[in-house]
Amino acid sequence: MNSKLISAGRFLVAVVVLALGVFGYVCFERTLVVWWWPVAVSAFVVLLSVPLFYNRWQWLTGTSGSVNLLCHVYVVGLVCYSFLLGGNSLLADSSSAHDEEGLVLKKETATKTIVNRSGRRYRYTRRVTHYYYLTVRFADGTCKKIPVPLSTYNRSREDKPCIFVMQKGFFGFRVVKSAKTP
């Protein structure tokens, strides 16, 4: 019974940490920040906490030494990354909302096909999903690839301005809340 509980705990920690990593990336897509800033902050927190906590992961890994160190780097790094970007995005100051104009540099479309299997050899397409992105340069020189809805994508043109609603995040990074159609 004890080994099943430990295995369930390991699985739960892995799923939660992976979900936090995905949440951090989704928040990163909407945040105007250079990619290495949140990574550097997370690495700094990991380096500060390694001497204190890396031995405590033995319950999760079942071993000691370098595996505990890798587990600590992975878990603490992703948790710090997602809390930094998620806190900045979710706790953004709504009173600081303002319109900001950006120049559309490029329009991109990503298509994903979801395929199901039925039996050993037969595969069938369940659905096709489209994702729309605008690469935008703002007045301060910041360039960002921003996901937008289809209506904004259809009405925007390359080398033409587009208006975005921005808010100041909790940690000072600007967050794109929505895109207005031009």
Note the topology.
Elements: H1 2-29, E1 31-32, H2 36-53, H3 58-61, H4 66-90, E2 93-118, E3 122-138, E4 143-148, H5 150-155, E5 161-168, E6 174-180
Antiparallel strand pairs: 1-6, 2-3, 2-5, 3-4, 5-6
Q: What about the largest sheet?
A: 6 strands, antiparallel
Tell me the structural class: alpha+beta
The whole-number mean of residue pLDDT values reads 89
Question: What distance lies between the first and last C-alpha atoms, to the nearest angstrom?
Answer: 61 Å
Strand content: 35-45%
Listing every helix as H and every strand as E from the N terminus to the C terminus, the arrangement reads: HEHHHEEEHEE
Counting DSSP H or I runs of 4 or more residues, the number of helices is 5
Helical content stands at 40-55%
Mass-distribution shape: flat
Number of strands: 6
Query: Which runs of at least 5 residues are low in confidence (pLDDT < 50)?
Result: none
Radius of gyration (Å): 21 Å
- Strand adjacency order, main sheet: 1-6-5-2-3-4
